[in-house]
Amino acid sequence: DARVTQTPRHKVTEMGQEVTMRCQPILGHNTVFWYRQTMMQGLELLAYFRNRAPLDDSGMPKDRFSAEMPDATLATLKIQPSEPRDSAVYFCASGLVGGLGNSPLHFGNGTRLTVT
Amino acid sequence: GDSVTQMEGPVTLSEEAFLTINCTYTATGYPSLFWYVQYPGEGLQLLLKATKADDKGSNKGFEATYRKETTSFHLEKGSVQVSDSAVYFCALSDPVGSNDYKLSFGAGTTVTVRA
What are A12-59's pLDDT values in tens digits? Predict the structure, then answer.
């Protein structure tokens, strides 16, 4: 059963440190999303890519966050420097867009980030 | 912009009770509508979807009907089980065939089913 893989599952770090989260989308999917989930804000779209090109990153704080897709099998989300308010669960999701219909989005199990 | 409003929780039910979670949306055009479910410690999973007015999505005993006249997509299940305890999210995206596919999610409704 194909699935989106995210690493690490949990990350605890100190304020000011760099954090890198990784995502392996499902093979063949052409669209990758990064979402952030918190109790206060719910699910927020941070950025998404189509065929590895960034389409929209307006939901992402540009001064400290960056998202990339070095190749079709890897998406990364970096925070530098991290702050306590970045503590959240970060989800990656992938899907196939185009043609007569879009596939459902498949979500990874998330990276739970705690910044102290 | 497009948005989804869903019933606030938490909702606590007894096993075999009837479940309804209300969801209404605001969108230009005719979005596709979804219900996702999130079990503890996991990512979201698609539960069901509907892509046009009067479509009924169904899965695992859950149903939701796309009502354009009331801009609603309420989730229902006739007899819940303990294993249905989860967080349920209503979501919308641009129409089928659109070149965009951003999902806008509601706030989520936590459902707890007691034995």
Answer: 999 999 999 999 999 999 999 999 999 888 899 999 999 999 988 888
Q: Where are the beta strands (DSSP E) in chain A?
A: 5-7, 10-13, 19-24, 31-38, 42-50, 53-56, 65-71, 74-79, 88-95, 106-107, 111-115
CA B74/CA B82 separation, integer angstroms: 21
The backbone torsions φ and ψ at residue A3, rounded to the nearest 5 degrees and listed phi first, read -150, 160
Pick the residue from chain A with its C-alpha nearest to B49.
Answer: A104
Best to test chain A binding among B33, B101, B109 (most A CBs inside 10 Å): B101
Contacts of B70 (CB under 8 A, 6+ apart): B24
Contacts of A110 in chain B (CB under 8 A): 42-43
